[in-house]
Amino acid sequence: MSLEQFIDLLIQHSPALIVAIPLIGAFLTPLIGKINDKVRNSFVIFIVLFTGFIVFLLANDIYSQWSKIHTYVFGGTAALKEGGFAIRILFEVDGMNIFMAIIVSILAIAGVIYSWAFMKENTGLDKYYTLLLLMIAGMFGMILTGDMFNFFVFLEITSIASCALIAFWTNKGKTVDAGFKYIVISAIGALFVLFAVAILYGQYNALNMAVLASKIQFSFLDKIALVLLITGLAMKAGIVPMHMWLPDAYGRAPSSVTLILIGATQASLYAALRMMFTVYGGKLTTTMNQIAELNIDLNLLLGIIIVGLALLTIFIGVLMALKENDFKRMIAFAAVAEIGYMILAIGAALTTIFSDTGATIGYMSLKGGIFHILNDALDVGLLFLVAGAIYYATKETSLNQLGGLARNMKYTTIFFLIGLLAVAGMPPMNGFASKLIIYESTYQVNPILAIIAILASILLLAVFVKVFHSAFLGPKLPKFEKVKEVPKSMLLAMGIIACIIIFIGLFPDLVVNNIVQPAVNALTNHSNYITTVTGGI
Amino acid sequence: MIYNVPYIAVVALVLIGLYAVVFKRNLIKIVIGILLIENGVNLFLITLAFRQDSTAPIYHGTGSRLMSLPIPHALTLTSIVIGVAVLALMLSLVIHIFRHYGTLDARKIGREEE
Questions:
Q1: Which one, of A419, A399, A410, A385, lies nearest residue A483 by Cα?
Q2: Cβ-defined contact of A149 to B100 (cutoff 8 Å)
Q3: Is A191 close to B71, i.e. CB distance below 8 A?
Q4: What's the mean pLDDT in A436-465?
Q5: Is the predicted pLDDT of residue A283 greater than 90, yes or no?
Q6: CA–CA distance from A58 to each of A10, A454, A497 (Å)?
Q7: Which of A127, A264, A276, B19 is exposed most, by the fewest CB atoms within 10 A?
Q8: Domains in chain B, please, with CATH?
């Protein structure tokens, strides 16, 4: 077999391999850990890099044609049996799925490299790496699957693994508390999703997303299912008022875990997008909803509710970040605010995208929101890695105790500065590019939205300038006399993310046209998603 | 009417479970609440599979008879297995919390200064 044939085979089976390789790696890790620690760490890095390579191959294949969809049916070739029964599980990868898969693979690679030095002094690392790979496999599964029940299973795999990782430092009471909060929220969220899946199955006898989307009638039960789905996924995505687990979980978990946890929250956000735009997409516009005397389009209603939640999320995130004194918790609240930006754009898109007059605004808004998913993962992730580096070097997270670190840790300082400017949406970082699109499009929907978004962005800048001042600047503190720069693997992980941030910041057009635009097309063109599976039935 | 009873039970189980999670302070009771929700959802799946006068979907050579749907049974089985894993994890966390704080009252947990 020649190399090209092998690559073709690899691409053909790539959706299954992307999930299977981390899964097999997870169960091999404890065995390989028997040899020694270095071999195990290298093995885990190899597994993640190899998965990233396959994601890259698949991405290359999908971006080669306009709106190409890669369908992988487990145990067969045809998605449907005779009579239209969709009983096979299938993975359906379009522009949106592969976009999320790219984000997750970047986060996974950086997180695993970072763990090498960061977790070195801990015991039980075999279990740590096993859970890390399980979580990565679960996230890829959530992102790539085209089957509702399969999605639920991967959701639970992700949340069980990530909960165990959040509570990894069981010697601290607060960490275990954060883990418990997370498992309660994610178990309830996942059960809501399962309830909704059951409601949909009971009506349409299908679990396949594409078949469901083609059959959906938007009855009263479907509306209940939509509410349950969005509530369950919003719980997992950390949208106010279901955000209370997020600062604890992000703040208490080891930094390398937090980085990958960002991917897990965004996978939930992606699923909410998939449910709204693909599964319910065809019927959202044509269904009118009667509220008292008023007839209102359902997409408008949904959009307004989501925009309201988004404004709350932005406000509460920023204000809580302003008063927080703990380094990691503060970044976690900033992460809540950043999630608000994404759903603000998504909500604004929902209100306009289906109408004739505002469709272009809606597309732009959706583009900004999806672009921001990538940027938020990188920016907030980088800040968490810097916070972890400071904790590693000083064993301190309270901002009152820190100071003058720029003298000892110059690379970390530079990385923090990059992350700070990116989160606050300052040019020339990537946060500026996506936030500008969000401001522009939401301004056309309603000027107040854009004003609030810009205001919150300025407040975020204020928050991080305060941190920068109190942690890095100022006189050298005697107790930090012996603090050294962090080990190379941590610097490498931060460096990878910082380079991507600057690259996106300098060439946003390149990223928007080549990666984000296919994702937007995939979401808005839901009939394409359906006919790939049903063949136009 | 008699066939609606399971659906009423489902909604009752889910609501009781949610009530326990939201209003109870004891962590064990919160865990029980989550289990109630889970059982409600599982019961819902099983109820969906049932058709009037149907038997379990196993062939035993007595000709064709009406059988209940097998797919929701498979889903329920998977969901039960996942539920056991979540339950075990939650209880192990509760044990850790009890070791640290000596209490299971949610109001007294995680409030200490570091």
A1: A410
A2: no
A3: no
A4: 92
A5: no
A6: 9, 37, 22
A7: B19
A8: 2-52+68-108 (1.10.287.3510)
